[in-house]
Design a protein that fits this description.
Strand content: under 5%
Radius of gyration: 20 Å
Helix content: 55-70%
Keywords: Ion channel, Ion transport, Membrane, Potassium, Transmembrane, Transmembrane helix, Transport
Number of domains: 1
Largest sheet: 2 strands, parallel
Main location: membrane
Protein name: Potassium channel subfamily K member 16
Shape: globular
Order of helices and strands: HEHEHHHH
Distance between the termini: 49 Å
CATH architecture: Orthogonal Bundle
Membrane topology: Multi-pass membrane protein
Subcellular location: Membrane
């Protein structure tokens, strides 16, 4: 029972174990459910929570897919505008290649290169461990061997895990767009 408590999220708490359900944990948990990453370190610890999670996932996963699809369409519309600008008569192939290269480079830096720097600084991981976490997360594999904001010896800013969840959503959208391109 104690092991389930340590791994599970419980909004009630009791005299020996305070609630570990704050906004940051709930936002991160909700994000890992709807993105199907499921690190394995957070799970509902009550039957009512587990039942709610099933229904949340039944509706949340398809809604998240629809959201990512719309986000991808919006980003794609901007890419089409850029493509039309680049492909106007008189624009060299070099400009076209430069535009695609800039898009890929900016996204790679924003979603795959810089985040491991942040994670290695905040979590105390090596850059390689941070990159591994980044890739395993954005590929939605989510082993759970590395998870942000879980070290009990560290004090995290309250929005750290929420910002990570937002990075995950936009990183997934960018990757989907890269696969589309």
């Amino acid at each position: 029972l104690m092991e389930a408590w340590e791994k599970g999220v419980n909004p009630e708490g009791n005299s020996t174990n305070p609630s570990n359900w704050d906004f940051s944990n709930s936002f991160f948990f909700a994000g890992t459910v709807v993105t199907t990453i499921g690190y394995g370190n957070l799970s509902p610890s009550t039957v009512a929570g587990q039942i709610f999670c099933v229904f949340y996932a039944l509706f949340g996963v398809p809604l998240n897919l629809a959201f990512l699809n719309q986000l991808g369409k919006g980003l794609n519309a901007h890419l089409i505008t850029l493509e039309r600008w680049v492909q106007k008569p008189g624009r060299a192939q070099v400009v076209q290649t430069l535009a695609v290269g800039t898009f890929l480079t900016a996204g790679t830096l924003l979603f795959l290169v810089f985040p491991p720097l942040v994670f290695s600084y905040v979590e105390g991981w090596s850059y390689g461990e941070g990159f591994y976490f980044t890739f395993i997360t954005l590929s939605t594999i989510g082993f759970g061997d590395y998870v942000v904001g879980t070290n009990p010896n560290k004090h995290y800013i309250p929005v750290y895990r929420s910002l990570t969840a937002i990075w995950i959503v936009f990183g997934l959208a960018w990757l989907a767009l890269v696969f589309n391109v």
